[in-house]
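Hi support team,

I'm filing this because I wasn't sure whether my run with alpha-D-galactopyranose finished correctly. The job status page said complete, but I'd like someone to confirm that the output block is well-formed before I use it downstream. Pasting the exact inputs I used:
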Amino acid sequence: MKYILAAAALAQIAVATEGSDHELEKRLDNGLGLTPPMGWSSWNVAQCASASERYAIDTANKFISLGLKDLGYSYVNIDDCWSTKSRDGSGNLVPDPSKWPNGIKSVVDRIHGMGLKFGLYGCVGTMTCAGYPGSWGREAQDARLLASWGVDFWKHDACYTPCTNGQTPQTCWSAQFNTRAWYETMRDALASVRSTKNIYYNLCQWGRDSVWTWGNSVGNSWRMSADNWQDWDSVERIGSAAAGISQYSGPGGFNDLDMLIVGNNKLTENEERLHFGLWAICKSPLILGNNLNTISAASLAIIKNKGIIDINQDRLGKPATIFRPSGSPAPVSGRIYSYWAGPLSDGVVIGLVAGTGAATLSVNFRDVPGLGSGSYSWREMYSGRTGTGTSVSFSLGNHDMAVIKVTTSEWYSQCV
Ligand code: GLA
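And here is everything the job wrote out:
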């Protein structure tokens, strides 16, 4: 599905030109996703082959044995290919019996019994991206089924929708309608079953129609880009675009930068630190797209960094974005800028990013939004380095990142 990329690049240009004074519309307000969800998704592990009970239960067990549950990872999400290729005689989706020998509900019950949550995947169009039945015209029926199974999270993809030429290809970049209406149909269907089950709603239409400007009135999070294709270029493409849309993200409705690929042997250790740190400070959902059976100790340490998780889960829910200290070069489109900052309930997070090569990056706290000319205590979350003063400086290898929490007094949290 690489051809999603070109149009997504156009969407990213729109990001850069978007005004920053947009009024947020009324929030979905289903009470879910007040901080970004944390969990795992089956897609990157083995695509269709991992959409099964075996992977779901195995991952739930790993959440507990690896200590991930204790850190807040709770959603075990099954992506595309979990159903049979056709609905049953009543029009219901059918779990593929070869992948779900005990059906979905029994698995949901077991996962709930472990203190965890379960997510499923579907699609706006007539078929999912991998060609399984989509929810087109069946939204209310599908929502009732999900609620009856106790499903906690629903990812709604955007394949096989009507194009202006009357066809329904896998990916239509010239849709007959704004995608918003389609996503509202499923929102309303999920709302109608809320008394049975309140379901987290994740929009996946790859950042079309400036979804960040309306996503929070429709869903709890929205993909703002084409897929993370499991390479550095994707991390750079998505991470750089996130800076321009931070203002649209907040409690109950977050920009979704897509699944984390930490632990898949696709990035260097530096790049894994940058990927996790940047997604976390941007308040993206932290959804692991990896195989927890084969993850290295180094990668596991990154996704278990409690200081960074706490920043992601801060109750303010305000994403970091770029700022430009005096004398620093201008941001370059498509590259991850060096200086990031965002408010926390008890301080400020600063991200220093060596996005284009090894660098020594220094910042005076007086240049940081939310800080002043005084002396502050700080802690860098990967190295554990701490200090007190008016500035920090880090020498970083190529594509590495420092995540620095600067603690301010309690009055700060009351002023933001
Ligand atoms: C799309 C989505 C991916 C994944 C696949 C499944 O490409 O963007 O995240 O869900 O479909 O087919």
